[in-house]
Amino acid sequence: MTQAILQGRTSRPRTIVFYAVHGIGKSTWAASAPTPIFIQTEKGLDDIGCDRFPLAESWADVSAQLAQLCSTDHPYKTVVVDSLSALEPMVFAEVCRDKAKKNIEDIGYAKGYKFALDYWRELTTALEWLQKNKGMTVVLVGHSKIVRYENPETEPYDRFEIDIHRDASAMLQRWADEVLFANYEVFTSEKGEGFNKRVKAIGDGSRKIYTNERPAWKAKNRLNMPDSIPMLKENGWAEYAKYISK
Are the C-beta atoms of 185 and 161 separated by less than 8 Å? Predict the structure, then answer.
């Protein structure tokens, strides 16, 4: 059978993994996306005033909420899962229930984390369906953690990564169109010499979203974005959306 040849760029809703340091305003940024509905796996949305499902307490709750979005008519243009870091224990609990184990480590040889990937794939499959059939943008919010990275070309160093297991993190990063990392802008100054030398951190609270990978963090984008964009306090989504329209 002859296959059609596709040419040029295609406009479509985006899939975004957005992770950041604690308290920077991850949920507020996601809430400024077009007409969002939140699947909340942790507390913290009450003060934002966004539309949201009741707090999910299990993988079954998350699955039911996704199914409702898939099967009903609704006005929402963005689905936000907040957060991946709080969803992961629910995934692990479901794996343990299926395998009749008390702890995911009890499965042995790190197999539990491989079984968990099946549930993450179930999540991305549902989200892709919403993207393609409901025209919904997807935002997955995550906390950050600092991990030691064993680079084969250099000495080991620390960097920011998504606060979930490395296998799930790698899978979601491959799947997403954009992986964005947000942090406060910090500068350092040195005072003194020798044993009296001190390094002082300086910052005015300015926030940036980093769009390309650097030694200190994981990130990527498919929109030819600059290395960083401002994380605005009001309507932060608008700064990112400029590059979608381009």
Answer: no
CA distance 226 to 229: 7
Instruction: For 112-147, write each residue's pLDDT tens digit.
Output: 999 999 999 999 999 999 999 999 999 999 999 999
Determine contact, residues 69/36, Cβ cutoff 8 Å: no
Burial of residue 44 (CB within 10 Å: 0-12, 13-18, 19+) is middle
CA distances from 155 to 50, 96, 151, 152, 218 (A): 45, 37, 7, 8, 18
Bridge partner residues of 80 (DSSP): 38, 139
Predicted structure pTM score? 0.91
β-bridge partners, 78: 36, 137
